[in-house]
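Technical note accompanying the year-one report. For the benefit of new consortium partners, we illustrate the data format agreed upon in the data management plan: each record pairs a sequence with a structure-token string. No post-processing was applied to the example shown here.
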Amino acid sequence: MEEMEEELKCPVCGSFYREPIILPCSHNLCQACARNILVQTPESESPQSRRASGSGVSDYDYLDLDKMSLYSEADSGYGSYGGFASAPTTPCQKSPNGVRVFPPAMPPPPTHLSPALAPVPRNSCITCPQCHRSLILDDRGLRGFPKNRVLEGVIDRYQQSKAAALKCQLCEKAPKEATVMCEQCDVFYCDPCRLRCHPPRGPLAKHRLVPPAQGRVSRRLSPRKVSTCTDHELENHSMYCVQCKMPVCYQCLEEGKHSSHEVKALGAMWKLHKSQLSQALNGLSDRAKEAKEFLVQLRTMVQQIQENSVEFEACLVAQCDALIDALNRRKAQLLARVNKEHEHKLKVVRDQISHCTVKLRQTTGLMEYCLEVIKENDPSGFLQISDALIRRVHLTEDQWGKGTLTPRMTTDFDLSLDNSPLLQSIHQLDFVQVKASSPVPATPILQLEECCTHNNSATLSWKQPPLSTIAADGYILELDDGSGGQFREVYVGKETMCTVDGLHFNSTYNARVKAFNKTGVSPYSKTLVLQTSEAAGAHETKPMKGR
């Protein structure tokens, strides 16, 4: 259950979701956080000038600000970059969990209005902090987004399972353990706070006080709110629109944009999507099981490398000591080579362990979250998020594809000391390989004539050396943050060309690439300097230079 916690936290505030809403991209935000990251767009970018009348795809228009995707021609890898494509005059902020978001561009709503009811300025725009897709709100504002009641239910159960003892909700400093709960006030009290804030006299004398455990159960058994239509707030969801993939009400079918769409019974689609998510989870569960076994294999390899290293060093020392004083100087050099090989093997295996552990933690968290979602008995709420969850499960399963669970390093030290030469040939003493092994691929070469920048995007191209005979399984492209900071991976795949969008304007980036195969990774290529355009309106294409 602990690995599921990241699925339950808002990407903006970093805390558990409070009144979560579902964006059209299927990601979630706290309702208050969604309002905090709203920005206003110029009048020329009004959605009225771009919205096609009668379109049934969405009530929202995606902006040209969506510049965060990384793609390559016929991309077969994956990429991610933590930058944010905003106007040069709009600085970015980072949320507690590392996601870049827009700063608030408008004053907070009056305290007497909830975030959903407070008026939203005209032409307000919101950008998803996870996929960076931007959209302009219509007249309904934040009320046009459906609430994710399934996620709220999962968070409630998770928090209840984590709470060891119920605490008083009115203690100012260190909360004391609650002794009673008022069913009418829906508040947990310790004895001092109950006597001070809830005296047994006057109107409060009729309130029913129960033990905390009983109060928790009554909270859990309280009826959930009925899901209502976002377009017709007085109507409950009763059908499912197959074309729009969302629950709808009867009024939507009679007079709304879904009148000509194919619809099906809500309960039938609920059961169908639950079945599809369960089937997808079965495949992902098998991958997770294989990943756990693979981690055990990798940890065993670490132990074997350690043991083989000790054994190899002892043998080497014994052979060198037998070759009198002339061998001593050479012995130190050979030991250094063995230690270097030892560290290289450990580094490759440990890096793979770390990468696989992170991926397994994310996979397990997604699985636990999906299992909790399946437990929900709210058809419409479930159908609001089921498609996105099914896609995420399939995508995560694909990431555990061929080659992911294969060690990149062997445990054997493929070297042997030949002590047959005479003493006068000691200076020629060197290792010989016991068995042939696949070497790492050669260092890729960045093709400067094909690398260029355009506005705030950069296209990079590379190739293997002409005389290289060692095949590469793929390439890793790395980019710094534009300020001389640490490099980060932005593309991993088999392609030899990649376009990176969403860079900052008028910034200098450094790029480098390396190749890898089952044996290991090649050295980095020469660093390439990228200079982006000064402003969004510039159209010049700048060549690259290496160093």
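Partners are asked to follow this layout when depositing records. Residues 217 and 438 are 62 Å apart (CA to CA).
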